[in-house]
Design a protein that fits this description.
Layout: H1 5-9, E1 31-33, H2 35-41, E2 44-49, H3 59-72, E3 77-81, H4 85-97, E4 100-106, H5 112-120, E5 124-128, H6 132-145, E6 149-150, H7 156-162, H8 164-173, E7 179-183, H9 188-199, E8 205-211, H10 216-219, H11 241-250, E9 254-258, H12 260-274, H13 284-292, E10 305-310, H14 318-324, H15 335-342
Parallel strand pairs: 2-10, 3-4, 3-6, 4-5, 7-8, 7-10, 8-9
Antiparallel strand pairs: 1-2
């Protein structure tokens, strides 16, 4: 059985000696070679499927560290703002730790699978009549006023936990990939990956991709009313803006935008052609390199390998899946009729 993430990498994590390990055996997610994607982009491509974490997203990596530290510091409750994945993870790890959990989500803007998770794990779920950025402002103020631990990616322990994904890739490949493609929403994840690579002496080129309707880093200014089918990256003012831009600059990479149509095309293609069912936001990494290629850094050469980060599982957003999938075929209760349908 794989060790919990904290047990494997504790010497690289800033936890106190007496901190408990609040874990659901997160991490050790698959790194899947993608032959078809490799053929399309002219480089060896891998899919880092973070949807295999316990609550179905990469958020668990940071949450195990943040909640472990919160427990060690004596916190009685944790809180977050979320477009969905952080809410699910926060609720699960709060339950695991025996802490009260509260999450604030934008009303009507959270995928049903993520909402179900947060509710079933027992968190107090508040639907705010506003967007994610407004929700984050409120929870930050609440954390300042009350003895409650804020576990959004502004929490430094979240970033520390999420950097372990970079460690895993280097461990499995024996070296860092030449490039990393990653969806960008609140920008904590790209910040984490870069920190992890830097700590092992690596510097792959980072390619970040935002949805066109929620692309503040691309536009260079906050987006007041972000809109995209990729709900997990529907964020108009990323909390880790400066760190993320520093990572792109330092790696000689770039951040670019992809349309909802390109995201959905990649989402369908990954499921139908590679057998990997990720949530729409995750597919932004693949949509991005299909749309923009792997630009050659100034004075460099084209990357020979790239890891595409798939941040969450497709079952997080069943409504989008059913709305974009082929229709179910109805059939009479007769073997001949079934044969005609199956072999049509």
């Amino acid at each position: 059985m794989p060790q919990p993430l904290i047990e494997r990498y504790r010497e690289r994590l800033p936890l106190e000696p007496g901190d408990p390990v609040v874990s659901l055996n997160e991490g050790s997610t698959p790194l899947i070679p993608s032959e078809r994607l490799s053929e399309r982009i002219g480089a060896q491509a891998y899919l880092k499927f973070e949807g295999a974490n316990p609550t179905g997203s990469f958020k668990d990596r940071g949450m195990t560290v943040a909640v472990s530290r919160a427990r060690g510091a004596g916190a009685e409750a944790v809180i977050c703002a979320s477009t969905g994945n952080t809410a699910a993870s926060c609720a699960a790890y709060a339950a695991r730790a025996g802490l009260r959990g509260a999450v604030i989500v934008p009303e009507g803007k959270i995928a049903i699978g993520k909402l179900a998770q947060a509710l079933m794990h027992g968190a107090r779920v508040i639907a705010l009549r506003g967007n994610f950025d407004e929700a984050l402002t409120i929870v930050r103020e609440l954390a300042d006023r009350h003895p409650i631990e804020l576990v959004n990616s502004v929490n430094p322990y979240r970033i520390e936990g999420q950097k372990t994904a970079a460690f895993e890739v280097v461990d499995e490949l024996g070296e860092a990939p030449a490039a990393l493609a990653i969806p960008v929403g609140n920008a904590g994840n790209v910040t984490s990956w870069w920190r992890g690579f830097q700590e092992v002496g690596a510097a792959p080129v980072l390619y970040g991709f935002q949805a066109e309707g929620a692309a503040p880093l691309v536009q260079g200014a906050p987006v007041a009313n972000p809109e995209t089918v990729a709900s997990a990256i529907r964020i108009g003012n990323p909390a880790r803006w400066e760190e993320a831009m520093d990572a792109f600059t330092s790696s000689r990479g770039r951040v670019a935008a992809v349309s909802d149509e390109q995201i959905i095309d990649a989402y369908r293609w990954l499921a139908a052609d590679e057998g990997v069912f990720c949530e729409p936001a995750s597919a932004a990494s693949v949509a991005g390199i299909l749309a923009h290629g792997l630009p050659v850094p100034e004075g460099g050469t084209g990357p020979e390998s790239v890891v595409c980060v798939l941040t969450g599982h497709g079952l997080k957003d069943p409504d989008t899946a059913l709305g974009k999938a082929p229709a179910v075929t109805n059939c009479e209760n007769d073997i001949a009729a079934v044969e005609r349908v199956v072999f049509a």
